[in-house]
Amino acid sequence: MRPLLFGFLVSILCAAFAFSQEHSTSASLNASSEKLQKELVAKYGDGQRERIGRGLRQVAEFWRPEDGDAAAFEQFVSTNFAGDQATLDTMFNRFENLLEQADGHMHEINRAFRQQADLDLGPILPFDEIFASYDPAAHMLDDFFSNKLAFVVLLNFPLATLDDYLTLGPNWTRRQWAEARLAEYFSKRIPAEVNLGLAQAAAEADEYISQYNIWMYHLVDAQGRRVFPPKLRLLSHWNLRDEIKADYADKENGLVKQRTIQQVMDRIVTQTIPGVVVDNPHVDWNPFTNEVKAAAEKDSDNPAHASDPVTNAAEPSTRYKVLLKTYQASKKADPYSPTAPTLIERRFNEDREIPEKRVQQMLVQVLSSPLVPRVAKLIQSRLGRPLEPFDIWYDGFLPRGAYAPSELDAVVSKRYPTAEAYQKDIPNLLVKLGFSPEKAQYVAANIIVDPARGSGHAMGAEMRTERAHLRTRVEKGGMNYKGFNIAVHEMGHNVEQTFSLNEVDHTLLRGVPNTAFTEALAMMLQGHDLEVLGLSSPDEKSEALRVLNDFWATYEIGGAALVDMAAWHWMYAHPDATAPQLRDATVQIAKEIWNHYYAPVFGKKDVVLLGIYSHMIDSFLYLPDYPIGHMIGFQVEEHMKKTGNIGGEFERMTKEGRVTPDMWMIHATGKPVGPDALLAAAERSLSKLE
Ligand SMILES: [Zn+2]
Question: Which of 135, 143, 492, 579 is the right S-S partner for 321, CB 3.0 to 4.6 Å?
Answer without folding.
Answer: 579
